[in-house]
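Changelog-adjacent note: as of this version, every example in the card shows the full chain rather than a window. The one below runs 555 residues end to end.
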Amino acid sequence: MKTDIEIAQATELEPISVIASRAGVDEKYIDQYGRYKAKVDLKLLEENKRPDGKLILVTAITPTPAGEGKTTTTVGLADGLRRIGKNVVVALREPSLGPVFGVKGGAAGGGYAQVVPMEDINLHFTGDFHAIGAANNLLAAMIDNHIYQGNALGIDPRRITWRRCVDMNDRQLRFVLDGLGGKANGMPREDGYDITVASEIMAILCLASSITDLKQRIARIVIGYNWSGAPVTAGQLKAEGAMTALLKDALKPNLVQTLEGTPAFVHGGPFANIAHGCNSVIATRMALRLGDYAVTEAGFGADLGAEKFLDIKCRYAGLKPDAVVIVATIRALKMHGGAAKTELTDENLDALIRGLPNLLRHVANIKDVYGLPVVVAVNRFPTDTQAEIELVIEKCRELGVNTVLSEVWAKGGEGGTELAEEVVRLCNEKSDFKFCYDTEDKIKDKINSIVTRIYGGVGVEFTSEASRQIRTLEKLGYGKLPVCMAKTQYSFSDDASKLGAPEGFTVTVRNVKISAGAGFVVALTGEIMTMPGLPKSPAAERIDVDENGVISGLF
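Full-length structure tokens:
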């Protein structure tokens, strides 16, 4: 059996100019990065007056080590739509180097449903993440330089909230002491690093609508507080111009292709467990402008990525999905039901029955809380039995939702045509889209709405520090912003060990901070960290390159 990278390397790609033409992008709008990648000029959105297409969101059940195949399904669905004669464009996130070299691997799909060139996409791509890291760290340097040069703004070094970043899983950098070595080397202080995808710059880039909007958002970033307790912004440091200059090309979406030649935008990559988990608004808008159908995804399970896609991204961008796909595997559902990873090839209806509530809660949330049409896509494995498949179909039917078997990993677009037909049908249904909460609500009430309505918990416990931070943020005028929950991806709760659809739990919010440039309040729960670490056996140990420059081991 061929690996993902072997399948990708064996495919003859079309020149990106051909893909651009297929998407209806005139050559004047593209800046080529080699033969198979291009940036698309933002002027396309101003000058192309074509009506927007239908928006399809792909999300998933709560992830497990058994895998769900959300990106693979997204790509395969797009290829399936194209096979049934639809004009379609994909919009995905860019992978972070942290997971690529860590435990999760790449994020370009899998099998015969991939975006390519997958090695480029999974590694440096067009340099967007490097630009984001540079802009983030320029601001950090300007903060410390301002203090060194006399601190005219009265920044309290103990209350600097802006951290440096690097796009790598490196737990050693979570907390550092810097400015050591004497007066000439700065003021000693406690500092730390986040992974680049957790930087507010990443969130800003993905929510910005233009260069002007990008610059204005950067100026609003709160970097810390002065001696009087008032917030200090990047704009007060006069940093927004230079930071935007670093990001002007990164703001342009990247155009690539699927293995079957379907146009695909891959742009931006905030994690959904520590950020808002969606590709850029600009890439999504371009996909909608160019395609009759735009297929996009949101990170991790629907309680994280989809909730933030709907409550944050759609709210700011004025978007409304026409259909939602929830991806599941019978293997993963059996894990949610208590089956060991080594037992997943055996038929186990009891474990499946115990695990199904996880899928059903996600389905009910999309259908009943958000009022959107939804279909369940089951990534089929050879070991799935007919009885197991029929059980999933039956339980979803009880909620008024259809289930479609997907075989896109093995068959590409051919294995996604049935799902494509169902999605087209759903896009023609009437829906009553609504948000989970009203932004006019108090911060605590918004968090409580997410926990009780989406997670299925009974309430929220706020530490005294979190309550103090909320009072401060509301006093400063940030109380009407949406909420971005930082929570484990492995459970509806804030405890990763609680699989399935736990009940009767409370979520503890330990820290609340403002991302004023992105335009949301971040609530940190449980043990969630903004700088992951590498596992005992990182994927980096298995990645190699030969004398001809051919990479192996990426997945």
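Structural remarks: The CA atoms of residues 27 and 297 lie 27 Å apart.
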